[in-house]
């Protein structure tokens, strides 16, 4: 779905829901692939509209891998600070920590009781874990690996929690990248199944808002996606990087031995990546940018790319430092957001539990 047509498509009563795990400061690929879309969605809603945005720090999802409590707490706060710094406005959107709203886990359990294990076993991310050991789920459950502690129930069943995150607020639209579309399809499948089981429209079936931006690749290894877990910090640009760091990373980015700048040549993945980054950040066409620099030296082109990245990112870094210096304000925003989220979710959860026989 094109953001430019969003206000027309969403209508007057849309509910947009999305979350981000607190796994570290996002990089420009995270920003261009999803986070910028959040601010565009928020800002596309007129002030007189009843449409709502729910954005949360998905801290419960991050617990599928071991965490050091003090470090994890700080990453949660840092993630909240970065969301505020890129323009998520707690006056216009409901912004909160997932773990502060217990309805997420309560709905997760109730939905899990109606989710076949076979559907979870087909999830790409889970299968990718098993492929490391060349086995399917049935074989896995009969091996010592299943009890080794390396794999846990949360890792297998977290798509149900993700579905609960979405359905709890009556989401009508979910902004996702291509790699998350399978999870949304599972959400839709679970919702339809439960609606059918109880012969009642308990859940709204949400639509996908697919971000069509090209994936941003690693700066020095343009054959793989940019990742903040990369051991080589020169492969990514964080939203909190300094101007000096940004310029050094762009200057050191891979190019090739072909003169000039062109776009689309499969033999030029590094140049294509720099063009995609620049085009996404400026809302322009990589072909148009390539034409502008078709006779430029690589160093000249990269200098221009660095100027654009610095101009776009350093305001986020400055705002982030200001938010981080005020943890009490961050906590207050999170608490107020959680209260708003609880108030929104309560009527649905009351009706949903009644349907299960857990109330009158």
From TrEMBL:
Its main location: mitochondrion. GO terms for molecular function: ATP binding; tryptophan-tRNA ligase activity. GO terms for cellular component: mitochondrial matrix. Its EC number is 6.1.1.2. Pfam families: tRNA-synt_1b. The keyword DNA-binding does not apply. It is found in: Mitochondrion. SUPFAM superfamilies: Nucleotidylyl transferase. The keyword Ligase applies. GO terms for biological process: mitochondrial tryptophanyl-tRNA aminoacylation. It catalyses: tRNA(Trp) + L-tryptophan + ATP = L-tryptophyl-tRNA(Trp) + AMP + diphosphate + H(+). Belongs to the class-I aminoacyl-tRNA synthetase family. Keywords: Aminoacyl-tRNA synthetase, ATP-binding, Ligase, Nucleotide-binding, Protein biosynthesis. This is tryptophan--tRNA ligase. InterPro entries: aa-tRNA-synth_I_CS, aa-tRNA-synth_Ic, Rossmann-like_a/b/a_fold, Trp-tRNA-ligase, Trp-tRNA-ligase_bac-type, Trp-tRNA_synthetase.
């Amino acid at each position: 779905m094109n953001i430019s047509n969003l206000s027309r498509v969403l209508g007057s009563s849309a509910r947009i829901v999305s979350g981000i795990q607190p796994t570290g400061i996002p990089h420009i690929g995270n920003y261009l692939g999803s986070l910028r879309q959040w601010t565009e969605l928020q800002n596309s809603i007129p002030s007189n509209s009843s449409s709502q945005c729910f954005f949360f720090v998905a801290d419960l999802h991050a617990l599928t891998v071991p965490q050091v409590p003090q470090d994890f707490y700080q990453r949660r706060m840092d993630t909240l600070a970065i969301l505020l710094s890129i323009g998520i406005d707690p006056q216009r959107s409901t912004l909160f920590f997932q773990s502060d709203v217990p309805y997420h886990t309560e709905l997760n359990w109730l939905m899990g009781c109606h989710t076949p294990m076979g559907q979870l076993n087909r999830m790409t991310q889970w299968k990718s874990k098993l492929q490391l050991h060349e086995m399917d789920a049935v074989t896995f459950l009969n091996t010592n690996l299943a009890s080794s502690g390396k794999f846990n129930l949360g890792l297998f069943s977290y798509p149900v929690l993700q579905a609960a995150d979405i359905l709890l607020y009556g989401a009508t639209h979910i902004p996702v990248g291509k790699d998350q579309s399978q999870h949304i399809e599972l959400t839709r499948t679970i919702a339809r199944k439960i609606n059918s089981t109880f012969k009642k429209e308990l859940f709204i079936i949400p639509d996908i808002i697919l971000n069509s931006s090209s994936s941003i690749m690693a700066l020095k290894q343009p054959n793989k996606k940019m990742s903040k877990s990369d051991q080589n910090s020169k492969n990514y640009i964080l939203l909190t990087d300094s101007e000096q760091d940004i310029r050094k990373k762009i200057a050191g980015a891979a190019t090739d031995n072909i003169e000039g700048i062109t776009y689309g040549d499969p033999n030029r993945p590094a140049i294509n990546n720099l063009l995609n980054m620049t085009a996404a950040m400026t809302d322009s066409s990589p072909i148009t940018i390539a034409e502008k620099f078709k006779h430029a030296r690589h160093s000249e082109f990269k200098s221009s790319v660095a100027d654009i990245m610095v101009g776009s990112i350093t305001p986020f870094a400055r705002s982030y430092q200001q938010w981080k210096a005020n943890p009490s304000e961050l906590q207050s925003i999170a608490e107020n957001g959680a209260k708003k989220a609880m108030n929104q979710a309560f009527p649905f959860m009351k009706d949903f539990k009644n349907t299960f026989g857990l109330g009158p």
